[in-house]
Design goal:
Number of strands: 7
Helix content: 40-55%
CATH superfamily of the largest domain: HAD superfamily/HAD-like
Strand order of the largest sheet: 4-3-1-5-6
CATH class of the largest domain: Alpha Beta
Largest sheet: 5 strands, parallel
CATH architecture of the largest domain: 3-Layer(aba) Sandwich
Strand content: 5-15%
Length: about 260
């Protein structure tokens, strides 16, 4: 069936692949029925599956399909397909300029200083992208999980000082941080594992929604730039129409330009 649809190969044991593929194919058929019913601009079903295969590249482990078999996989994949198509259409036609860019800090800067104690650098291409966006009248923000506080590597004030300095140097308008961490581990501080603290941690949409409310900008006018699964899921949970994988967007320029010290 993967050959018929040119789907990405699933990774796992033979039995797990067989089981996961059955689950996947059922949900693929359900999503394609939704495409046909709701006329997403495709004259033929094959056009939809071509794009759907790109979305499915992110779901190639058998464990994901098996672990989520009782969840609304069809609804999730339907949303992800529409998200991908909207972003693709806007970029192809160059008629979408977001009013707001929200970044995870690791999509802008190298490493995590509280772990390796090394200087933090601006990744290649990011400063230029922000300058272009700001010059066009756009705003920018950071939404980040900061686990180092829960493990005693930083105080909350030290974390705020660090991120506010980064924001000042890059011209970023607002910063939202979550210090909660599910733990446990060495030097783990239990107060940062309580539900009322963890509820803002990505993939929760809370920090994104706080930014939108503070700046008065809608989800439809916002792009999230991230690097990790929790970044993408937070964007999905906040119903943003546009998500950019920083590793993909900046891959070519990253090979050509040296980093800049913050």
């Amino acid at each position: 069936m993967e050959q018929d649809y040119q789907l990405p190969i699933l990774h796992g044991s033979e039995n797990a692949v067989r089981w996961a593929d059955e689950i996947r194919m059922q949900h693929i058929e359900d999503v394609l029925k939704l495409v046909e019913q709701r006329s997403e601009g495709y004259p033929q079903q094959c056009s939809a599956i071509d794009h759907f295969s790109v979305v499915l590249q992110r779901y190639v482990t058998t464990g994901w399909w098996i672990d989520h078999r009782d969840d609304d996989i069809t609804g999730h994949l339907w949303y992800m397909l529409r998200l991908y198509l909207k972003a693709r259409h806007r970029r192809l036609h160059r008629n979408f300029i977001p009013k707001l860019l929200i970044y995870s800090v690791n999509s802008v800067l190298t490493n995590t200083p509280f772990v390796d104690k090394q200087p933090r650098f601006i990744l290649p291409g990011r400063l230029e992208a922000l300058q272009i966006h700001h010059n066009a009248g756009g705003k920018s923000s950071i939404a980040e999980n900061v686990g180092g506080v829960a493990y005693g590597f930083q105080t909350e004030q030290e974390a705020w000082d660090e991120y506010n300095t980064v924001a000042h140097n890059l011209g970023i308008h607002t910063v939202k941080l979550c210090f909660g961490h599910p733990g446990p581990g060495n030097s783990y501080l239990e107060e940062y594992g309580y539900d009322d603290v963890l509820k803002r941690r990505k993939p929760s949409p809370d920090m994104i929604l706080e930014i939108l409310a503070e700046l008065g900008i809608s989800a439809e006018e916002t792009t999230f730039v991230g690097r990790f699964p929790e970044d993408r899921q937070a964007a999905v949970n906040a119903h943003l129409d546009d998500y950019i994988d920083a590793a993909e967007q900046f891959e070519e320029v990253a090979l050509q330009e040296p980093p800049i010290l913050v």
